């Protein structure tokens, strides 16, 4: 339809133009404009009601009344430290069985995805999905079945002992170190993983030992052969029996090489 201007009684007359923009209807307001006007017309009418936006399958949070299209989510709150999501809706993780462990609640829906919710923990609990720490002067004590807090298991906060008996009953701590007894491990703020000394950790070119250990591997990492982490000696005899270390340095004896954090490649000075 062509645009026209008519002269009526000496006055220019223009056709009325409907307001344009996304979501405009009977009132001519767009949703953007309705938001700016806080959902009301200048005469105080409810724009959402006039436009039929209370049932348009879109959530309009600027309406005067609560929009039924704005439904609250029934999904577990991801900000809650007791909630751990394993996968998004439709992901491969959510098509498989979700193993959450004893006492945990699993969830899996097309809207939320899938995951686990930890049980309500007692006040003295620690670890778990949220990794709850203990207070000052306490350590997190895990039962043997908890595998040092693996699989989000909970532990119990206990006081760190000040004095321990001189008793040799070695245990392996959850930090991977061996201790003289369980009390000594707890005194270091560590729970016991198992009785007996820790099995030597494996090491190699791509797997370094802790700072106080060295990698005992006479092949020096050849062909990615795995060695074992051994404690560095605290003192060595001053005996000259030279060895060539895996680091290419000559040491006066093997003990000194181990103390420097390396294994002996072969006897004698480096060639």
Description:
The protein is mainly β. The chain folds into four domains: 23-72, no CATH class; 83-117, no CATH class; 128-195, Wheat Germ Agglutinin (Isolectin 2), domain 1; 202-267, Wheat Germ Agglutinin (Isolectin 2), domain 1. Strand 1 (6-8) and strand 2 form a beta hairpin. The termini are far apart. The strands form six sheets. The chain has a three-stranded antiparallel beta sheet, with no helix packed on it. Strands 6-8-7 form a three-stranded antiparallel beta sheet, with no helix packed on it. A three-stranded antiparallel beta sheet has the order 10-9-11. It is elongated and about 100 Å long. The protein has helices spanning 31-36, 47-51, 182-187, 254-259; strands at 6-8, 11-13, 83-87, 105-109, 113-117, 125-127, 138-141, 154-159, 171-173, 178-179, 192-195, 202-203, 213-216, 227-231, 243-245, 250-251, 264-267. 8% of the residues lie in helices and 23% in strands.
């Amino acid at each position: 339809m062509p645009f026209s201007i008519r002269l009526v009684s000496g006055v220019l007359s223009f056709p009325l133009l409907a307001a344009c923009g996304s979501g405009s209807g009977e009132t001519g307001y767009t949703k953007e404009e309705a938001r700016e006007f806080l959902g009301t017309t200048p005469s105080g009418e409810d724009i959402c009601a006039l436009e039929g936006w209370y049932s348009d399958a879109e959530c309009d949070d600027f309406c005067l009344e609560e929009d039924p299209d704005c439904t609250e989510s029934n999904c577990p709150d991801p900000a809650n430290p007791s909630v751990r999501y394993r996968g998004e809706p439709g992901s491969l993780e959510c098509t498989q069985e979700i193993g959450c462990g004893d006492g945990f609640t699993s969830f899996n829906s097309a809207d939320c995805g899938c995951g686990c919710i930890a049980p309500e923990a007692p006040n003295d609990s620690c670890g778990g999905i949220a990794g709850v720490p203990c207070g000052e002067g306490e350590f997190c004590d895990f039962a043997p079945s908890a595998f040092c807090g693996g699989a989000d298991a909970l532990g119990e906060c206990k006081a760190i002992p000040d004095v321990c008996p001189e008793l040799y009953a070695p245990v392996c701590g959850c930090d991977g170190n061996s201790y003289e007894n369980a009390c000594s491990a707890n005194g270091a703020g560590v729970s016991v993983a198992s009785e007996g000394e820790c099995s030597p950790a494996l090491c190699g070119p791509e797997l370094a030992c802790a700072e106080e250990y060295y990698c005992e591997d006479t092949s020096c990492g050849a062909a990615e052969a795995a060695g074992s982490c051994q404690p560095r000696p605290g003192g060595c005899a001053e005996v000259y029996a030279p060895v060539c270390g895996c680091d290419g340095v000559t040491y006066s004896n093997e003990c000194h090489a181990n103390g420097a954090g390396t294994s002996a490649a072969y006897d004698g000075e480096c060639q």
